[in-house]
Amino acid sequence: MQLTVPGETDDRNSRIEHAVAAVKAGDKQSYELIIKQFQRQIYTYCFYILKNHTETEDAVQDIFIRAYANLHRYSSSTSFSAWLYKIAYHHLLNLKKKQSRWLRLIEHFKESQQQQPVPPAESVTSELLTYLTAEERHILLLKAVEQYTFDEISAIMGLKATTVRKKYERLRKKLLERVSHKEGARMHGAISGANKTS
């Protein structure tokens, strides 16, 4: 997530719209500005869904290729960012559909065998994300990390804004229950351990 200064967002959007217009007019080099502006955000979004650096790199490349190929369909009636995330969302859905259960099981086994130590905060976040469905992870990342409005998320995911809002509230409740359950179990363990030493 990038912090922005008032007015900076408008300037950024203006630069992006100018670059899009230049690419549509035949200036292929202007697409580099678009890639530089969104590559890190799209990579982060894809990684939280795919959980694999190699697959994420491939997905990001495919997303930017698809966006370039479909740039003639982009209209400035929506933000370029939301349009690009819609492409990313649908591409990731297609990727997940193509993966069979068996391949995911094998991949999970390989990753668990090669796991490197993860900072506690990162491992807690990753663990909590495993309790969410793919759709819930998309909604959480778009709302909490990328800070899109419910209307923008509904346009990206092809759902009604009220549906997105309800799903977001449900997933927040699910995560809060999971966190309080973990805290309760940890506190119970600490109390049990203290009672045994007394």
From TrEMBL:
<dbReference type="InterPro" id="IPR007627">
    <property type="entry name" value="RNA_pol_sigma70_r2"/>
</dbReference>
<dbReference type="InterPro" id="IPR014284">
    <property type="entry name" value="RNA_pol_sigma-70_dom"/>
</dbReference>
<dbReference type="Pfam" id="PF04542">
    <property type="entry name" value="Sigma70_r2"/>
</dbReference>
<feature type="domain" description="RNA polymerase sigma-70 region 2">
    <location>
        <begin position="35"/>
        <end position="101"/>
    </location>
</feature>
<keyword id="KW-0804">Transcription</keyword>
<dbReference type="InterPro" id="IPR036388">
    <property type="entry name" value="WH-like_DNA-bd_sf"/>
</dbReference>
<keyword id="KW-0805">Transcription regulation</keyword>
<dbReference type="InterPro" id="IPR013249">
    <property type="entry name" value="RNA_pol_sigma70_r4_t2"/>
</dbReference>
<comment type="similarity">
    <text>Belongs to the sigma-70 factor family. ECF subfamily.</text>
</comment>
<protein>
    <submittedName>
        <fullName>RNA polymerase sigma-70 factor (ECF subfamily)</fullName>
    </submittedName>
</protein>
<dbReference type="InterPro" id="IPR039425">
    <property type="entry name" value="RNA_pol_sigma-70-like"/>
</dbReference>
<keyword id="KW-0731">Sigma factor</keyword>
<dbReference type="InterPro" id="IPR013325">
    <property type="entry name" value="RNA_pol_sigma_r2"/>
</dbReference>
<dbReference type="InterPro" id="IPR013324">
    <property type="entry name" value="RNA_pol_sigma_r3/r4-like"/>
</dbReference>
<dbReference type="Pfam" id="PF08281">
    <property type="entry name" value="Sigma70_r4_2"/>
</dbReference>
<feature type="domain" description="RNA polymerase sigma factor 70 region 4 type 2">
    <location>
        <begin position="127"/>
        <end position="175"/>
    </location>
</feature>
